[in-house]
Model the fold of this input.
Amino acid sequence: MAIICSSLFFVSCENDLKKIKELSQQDIKPQEITTNAEITYSDSAHVKAVVFAPVLINHKVDTPYYEMPKGVKIVFYDKELKVINTLTSNYALTKDDNNRFELYKNVVSKNAQGDVFKSEELIWNAKTQLITSSQPVQILFANGNISNGTNFESNQDFSHYTMNQTTGIWNVDQKAIE
Done:
């Protein structure tokens, strides 16, 4: 009886091991991992933005994409290479074919005027040079004003933007009213 039970045990383990091996073979996807990646975006020999990522994973699948699981920092420049905006997030994705950076989790941007933009999602389209978000956005202005809204759209330097359902706290100069 002991021999029959032990042989059944080994047969069942063998089948499980075969299944595990088959499943693990299916999950293997070709990847390239780069640490301390730096990507420069330029147009007509002018640097427009530089992307920094501690870890950049190139997923080589049917629709290839890049993942930045440890966060990303994007620095935007004007024609004189002056920083006009800095954008950071805890996670980002981009695809070769669409010129879009999708930034998620604790997305923060600070423009040259000192205004700070916060959201859980921002999409940067490098081709159209627009930044958008369908998620709630908060803007903390350098002068102390606060604005909240949704359906955000802005240029790359966050100097001109629109958003819907806007609420906020605005400081009013009493002397200007009188």
About this structure: The longest helix spans residues 2-26. Helices lie at 2-26, 174-177. The chain has two helices and twelve strands. Confidence is low (pLDDT under 50) at residues 4-9.
